[in-house]
């Protein structure tokens, strides 16, 4: 059975939305249902999955029955998925397996987060730290500091510079200029990144993704051609874990679970990284995108910055990465992030991405990870 994505939607991501969390969720549900080419009725949806990291980002819980009521089919089943920043990718993994197993025919997945619900950065950081290892939480280590440890070790091992990290931010902001859904459509230079204040050395403000409000959704089906003549097929999905604590890993310069999840997705799909035309990867911090290149097989170890400097991952390059702008420019409303990646690849592979359309894109890959790579989902799509 080839399971296909038949519709997708995303709100505009914003640094501070005037809408409440339930309003963002409602917009995503209604927009996703309306996005299906041949139409789909709420009666056709037999399962809903809601991706959301924390009720402290929006103030609502028990959202599955709310979404079921919006869909309008009282017999539909539903649940909420939480897996830190990989919640959206995990929702895809669950939905895909529900359909493959025959437990559902059509599954609606929606993800949301209203991070501005918390009034200060300190309170936002307190919520985020709950996704760390208990020993890291106890010592008060925020994720930016954990990624800074990874970045410093990587720079020492491979001779990579802060300017190399800055190139990731510059690229993704350039891509975000083409995306009307992006939260920060602002061109930046290497000098801008280098002048931005350190958040946790060697990572600066412009090395970091955005605190964002937003929601997104998609529908997958066991009968995709019933709902659209141009479905995007889910060829393989992999999910893998690493030790949640950075301090437990033998080599913190690799995010091992990305490699493991991609190997699973490629094995199921009978594809390889050579077949992929466009990628959306989890650039929570600039260092994580460079390491993702290597774990996915785009580059050898320590060569992530090299292929970026060579232009391979630019919008016009051989393997464009994050044409949406990524988490760095588009934004990172946690529960919606992985869901929005699916939506972006759905549009890319159908030729509907507007000014950010990657030419002749036939196959796409998403990499969505939680924590410092403690959970990773990689999925491969084809038109």
Description:
It is a single chain. The chain has 383 residues and is α/β, with parallel strands linked by helices. It folds into two domains: 130 residues, Thiolase/Chalcone synthase (Peroxisomal Thiolase, Chain A, domain 1, 3-Layer(aba) Sandwich), CATH 3.40.47; 221 residues, Peroxisomal Thiolase, Chain A, domain 1 (3-Layer(aba) Sandwich), CATH 3.40.47.10. Helices cover 37% and strands 18% of the residues. It is built from 13 helices and eleven strands. The radius of gyration is 19 Å and the shape is globular. 60% of the residues are buried. The model has no long low-confidence stretch (mean pLDDT 97).
Q: What keywords describe this structure?
A:
11 strands; 383 residues; 13 helices; alpha/beta; two-stranded antiparallel ribbon; Peroxisomal Thiolase, Chain A, domain 1; 9-stranded mixed sheet
Give the SSE map.
Elements: E1 4-10, H1 21-34, E2 47-51, H2 63-71, E3 77-81, H3 87-101, E4 106-114, H4 121-129, H5 134-138, H6 143-158, H7 162-176, H8 190-195, E5 198-200, E6 203-204, E7 213-221, E8 232-241, H9 256-269, E9 278-281, H10 286-296, H11 304-309, H12 326-329, H13 334-349, E10 363-370, E11 375-382
Parallel strand pairs: 2-3, 2-4, 9-10
Antiparallel strand pairs: 1-7, 1-8, 4-7, 5-6, 8-11, 10-11
Helix pairs in contact: 3-13, 7-10, 9-10
Radius of gyration: 19 Å
CATH level-four homologous superfamily name of the largest domain: Thiolase/Chalcone synthase
Q: Strand order within the widest sheet?
A: 3-2-4-7-1-8-11-10-9
The low-pLDDT segments are: none
How many distinct folded domains? 2
Globally, the shape reads globular
* Named CATH topology of the largest domain: Peroxisomal Thiolase, Chain A, domain 1
Level-2 CATH architecture of the largest domain? 3-Layer(aba) Sandwich
What class, by secondary structure content?
A: alpha/beta
Average pLDDT taken over every residue: 97
Strand portion, in percent? 15-25%
The level of helicity is 25-40%
CATH class of the largest domain: Alpha Beta
> How many DSSP helices?
13
Give a short account of the largest sheet: 9 strands, mixed
Give the distance, in angstroms, between the N- and C-terminal Cα atoms: 15 Å
Summarize the helix and strand pattern as letters.
Answer: EHEHEHEHHHHHEEEEHEHHHHEE
Find the count of extended strands (DSSP E, 2+ residues): 11
């Amino acid at each position: 059975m080839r399971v296909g994505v038949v519709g997708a939607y995303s709100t505009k991501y914003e640094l501070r939305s005037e809408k409440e969390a339930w309003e963002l969720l409602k917009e995503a549900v209604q927009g996703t249902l309306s996005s299906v080419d041949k139409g789909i009725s709420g009666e056709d949806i037999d399962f809903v999955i809601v991706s959301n990291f924390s009720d402290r980002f929006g103030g609502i819980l028990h959202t599955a029955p709310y979404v079921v009521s919006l869909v309008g089919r009282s017999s539909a089943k539903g649940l909420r998925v939480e897996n830190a920043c990989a919640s959206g990718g995990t929702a895809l993994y669950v939905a895909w397996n529900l359909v493959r197993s025959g437990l559902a025919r059509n599954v609606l997945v929606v993800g949301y987060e209203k991070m501005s619900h918390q009034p200060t950065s300190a309170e936002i950081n307190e919520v985020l730290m709950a996704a760390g290892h208990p020993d890291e939480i106890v010592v008060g280590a925020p994720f930016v500091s954990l990624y800074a440890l990874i970045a410093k070790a990587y720079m020492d091992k491979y001779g990579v510079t802060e300017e190399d990290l800055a190139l990731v931010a510059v690229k993704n902001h350039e891509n975000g200029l083409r995306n009307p859904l992006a939260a920060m459509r602002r061109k930046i230079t290497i000098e801008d990144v280098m002048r931005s204040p350190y958040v946790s050395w060697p990572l600066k403000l412009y090395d970091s993704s955005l605190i964002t409000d937003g929601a997104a959704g998609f529908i997958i089906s066991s009968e995709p051609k019933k709902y659209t003549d141009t479905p995007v097929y889910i060829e393989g999905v992999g999910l893998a874990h690493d030790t949640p604590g950075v301090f437990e890993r033998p080599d913190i310069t690799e995010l091992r679970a990305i490699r493991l999840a991609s190997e699973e997705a490629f094995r199921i799909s009978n594809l390889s990284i050579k077949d992929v035309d466009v990628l959306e990867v989890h650039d929570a911090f600039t260092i994580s995108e460079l390491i993702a290149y290597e774990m996915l097989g785009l580059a050898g170890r320590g060569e992530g910055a090299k292929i970026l400097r060579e232009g391979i991952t630019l919008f016009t390059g051989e393997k464009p990465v994050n044409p949406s702008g990524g988490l760095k420019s588009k934004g990172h409303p946690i529960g919606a992030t992985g869901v929005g990646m699916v939506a972006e690849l759905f549009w890319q592979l159908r030729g509907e991405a507007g000014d950010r359309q990657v030419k002749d894109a036939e196959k796409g890959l998403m990499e969505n990870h939680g924590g410092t790579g403690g959970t990773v989902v990689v999925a491969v799509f084809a038109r």
